[in-house]
Write a structure and sequence with these properties.
Elements (H helix, E strand, L loop, with lengths): L1 H17 L2 H16 L26
């Protein structure tokens, strides 16, 4: 019985992923949270950040 439930849940998961249901639900939730906070539903700016990582030069032959 447990296996059948797992298969059913996975069947729905795959269909929702294919139809982007999960993404639409998250978008709707994000929109609602932003509205409650008094902000525009769509963000007006984005921020990117990166860190420098030092690597070894393996091709130097030394």
């Amino acid at each position: 019985m447990r296996q059948r439930g797992r298969q059913t849940a996975y069947w729905y998961f795959v269909r929702w992923q294919e139809q982007r249901v999960t993404l639409r639900m998250l978008d709707a939730l994000r929109w609602q949270v932003r509205q409650v906070q008094g902000r525009d539903a769509e963000p007006s700016a984005g921020i990117l950040d990166s860190q420098g990582v030092q690597g070894r030069d393996y091709g130097s032959g030394s």
